[in-house]
Amino acid sequence: MRILLIRHGDPDYENDTLTEKGCREAELLAKRALSLHMGKCYVSPLGRAQRTALPSLEAAGCKAETVEWLQEFPAKLDVNKAPELAEAYPDIEKEGEKYRPRIVWDMAPGYLTEHEEYMDKINWRHSLVAKCSDMEDVYDKVTKEFDTLLAKHGYVRENGYYRVEKESTETITLFCHFGLICVLLSHLWNVSPFTLWNSFALAPTSVTEVVTEERKQGIAYFRGLKIGDISHLYAGDRRHGIIFLFAFLEIFIVLSSRTIQLRLAWHKIFA
User: Which segments within 36-141 are labelled E, that is strand?
Assistant: First the structure.
């Protein structure tokens, strides 16, 4: 079995759609749609994912089923319950004296590495962030829905792998979001979602591909073939693709009297 996870194009979050650049990215992705052999398609209900999927669906002559659980991972953190968590999310906003609810990922790397429970596949559930949010419940709900979908295609979750009830060469394609893609992959690979949220950089319209492998008949595990592939941007618009390659991450060199610090940060271009 093969799964394609496609992130939406460059977003206009305020209007839940795509920017002009995002629309161009979606059109370039559509030029690759037939060669992707997308199979059965599912799409997030959010506008930016719907707008990304539309050109590819039209190019491939297929339709997608909208499923609620493919929306961006909606868990919210209440830092007011543990103000020390402001250290983990230094960009958190306040409204008056209270912290505003915020997403649970995008944690400061220093905080993450100093608190090893966040990188443990089990202990993240007992972390302070989990206790101050609905993350655990939302994670379990999303992954249960994902497993239900995979079971319909013959792969049943059991002890961290998938029991093959009906071997399949089908492809399913999920048009969705960065946070959610990391959640689904963390479930497939039995790792903490915090590890993937802080390790992957999935560009807009990037394609991630995983396939089943059966080293022992009847027991399947999903292996990654492509992570965050944006070759359609290179092929369709060389300038767009090359700049994206280098501009998705920006290296800041901070000089001081004693140290040179390298920091990786998100870099937005073509704003």
Answer: 40-43, 64-66, 76-77, 94-95, 98-99, 102-103
- Residue 95 neighbours by CB under 8 Å, 6+ apart: none
**Kind of pairing, strands 219-229 and 161-164?**
antiparallel
| Length of the chain (residues) | 271
Phi, psi of 242 (to 5 degrees): -65, -45
For 171, the 3-state DSSP assignment is: strand
Domains annotated for the chain, with CATH where assigned, are 2-71+134-235 (3.40.50.1240), 76-128 (no CATH)
Strands (E), 144-241: 155-158, 161-164, 171-176, 207-216, 219-229
Please list the pLDDT of the chain residue by residue as tens digits (271 residues): 999 999 999 999 999 999 999 999 999 999 999 999 999 999 999 999 999 999 999 999 999 999 999 999 999 999 999 999 999 999 999 999 999 999 998 899 999 999 999 999 999 999 999 999 999 999 999 999 999 999 999 999 999 999 999 989 999 999 999 999 999 999 999 999 999 999 999 999 999 999 999 999 999 999 999 999 999 998 765 555 454 454 444 433 333 333 334 333 333 333 3
Compute how many other C-beta atoms are within 10 angstroms of the C-beta atom of residue 234.
Answer: 16
Residue 79 CA: distances (Å) to CA of 83, 92, 119, 125, 198? 5, 9, 20, 17, 19
Three-state DSSP state, 11 = strand
**What are the tokens at 170?**
């089908």
Token couple for 86: 């402001």
pTM: 0.86
Q: Let me know the angle formed at the C-alpha of 220 by 216 and 221, rounded to the nearest 5 degrees.
A: 115
